[in-house]
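Hallway conversation turned thread

IA: we were arguing at lunch whether anyone had actually written out Phosphoglycolate phosphatase end to end. Turns out nobody had. So, for the record, here is the sequence (217 residues) and right after it the structure tokens. Reply here if something looks off.
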Amino acid sequence: MLRHRCLVFDHDDTVVDSTKNIHFPAFQDTLKQLRPDITMEIDEFILHCFHPGFSELLSKHLSFNEEELQIQESNWLTCVENHIPTIFSGMKELMERHKEQGGNICVVSHSFSKNIYRDYEKNGLPKPDLVFGWDRPAKERKPNPYPLQEIMHQLDLKPEEILMVDDLKPGYDMAKACNVPFAAAGWAYNIPKINDYMSKQCDFYFTKVKDLYNYLF
């Protein structure tokens, strides 16, 4: 019997190892183009994405205007289109076993849906049942509760039948707003401030995919 009928995964740094190889280099290129006087290390970038979030990093911390936001998105998409990230070891086995036992897999991410589907296909992962990506209107992206509410509605699920797996606070905030259990994915990086918060606040904190697997099965 499944512990949770539906696993809802974040994408970057949860299923695929992408920030250090794709998203951060793309962000650095944008900074060089639009804010050449500002430098940022990867841990600082991840901390901004952790809280208050990537959108706030761009609009508030960096004060990008609409034209600059479009430039940033174009630079980012070019990088994403030309690089397929690898999945974390053990993720394929975890997802396949969950699907074999009749479970659902959904994705709520700040990546574009088409790239999420591509990454799953290229890495041999089961096709997600539902995907809520950056292409959704802002009010339908995490940390807003809409994605989880819609997953529960479409798949006829109760909050306790879902497990949200994410490495950052926006996913935790979304899950908390919906009373959905939350597992922190702590296997992509080691940043004490994030580790401390997630280990204290979240229902579960896993530093290895294998630990999540052992919990589920």
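OS: looked through it. The chain has two domains: 6-17+87-216, 19-81.
IA: good, adding that to the notes. The first helix runs from residue 19 to 34.
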